[in-house]
């Protein structure tokens, strides 16, 4: 069974924090982007270039569905909430869904030199901000908890998630 699912915009730290949590809990990390790359046999940039975003989203939904049969820490990609079917899966699960929330300025700062995210290049800073505004309520709609990351290191974010998860267990035990 999955322990926790991380959602949030690009650059909020889902992959990095997922790695820390996986190491701390001694659990596997499942990163949807890595699963997509493995399934397609090419990079995300190349999938977007060869087949377009729609094809990428289809693969993303497939690997999300498959991930629910696995164990560990699930790091999603920022666009996973674009699909209503994906949102339904995330809303219906009993697994905690943590929204890593970071403001657009900090996100752009983290990603401006990044070459692996096609949408960062396509949209630029203003376009990313618009996408952030449009997606923010979608992340809220699937999340059981929200953790802000602007002024926190990945280690601090992980510690806060661990604290939330330990409270979660206590609540279930009561
Ligand atoms: N809390 C944080 N503070 C500062 N930089 C961060 C933080 N979390 C992640 N980063 C950096 O932001 C970039 C994107 O992180 P990543 O984990 O790939 O995000 P995501 O998977 O959400 O897109 C990386 O360079 C990472 O080191
Ligand atoms: O937000 C998005 O639409 C995307 C986010 C990326 O994952 P990260 O959120 O891990 O960067 C990756 O799936 C792809 O570049 C598209
Ligand atoms: Mg990631």
* CATH-defined topology: Rossmann fold
Computed over alpha carbons, the radius of gyration is: 15 Å
Overall shape: globular
> How much β-strand is present in the residues?
5-15%
Feature tags:
Rossmann fold, 174 residues, alpha/beta, binds magnesium ion, single chain, globular, binds adenosine-5'-diphosphate, binds shikimate-3-phosphate, 7 helices
Task: Give an account of the 3D structure.
- The protein has 174 residues and is α/β, with parallel strands linked by helices.
- It has a single domain, classed as Rossmann fold.
- The chain has seven helices and five strands, in the order βαβααβαβααβα.
- A five-stranded parallel sheet has the order 2-3-1-4-5, with helices on both faces.
- Shikimate-3-phosphate binds at residues 10, 14-15, 33, 44, 77-79, 117-119.
What's the layout of helices and strands?
Elements: E1 2-8, H1 14-25, E2 29-31, H2 32-40, H3 44-67, E3 72-75, H4 84-92, E4 97-101, H5 104-111, H6 118-142, E5 145-148, H7 154-173
Parallel strand pairs: 1-3, 1-4, 2-3, 4-5
Helix pairs in contact: 1-7, 2-3, 5-6
The protein binds adenosine-5'-diphosphate, shikimate-3-phosphate (S3P) and magnesium ion (MG).
Structure summary:
Helices cover 61% and strands 13% of the residues.
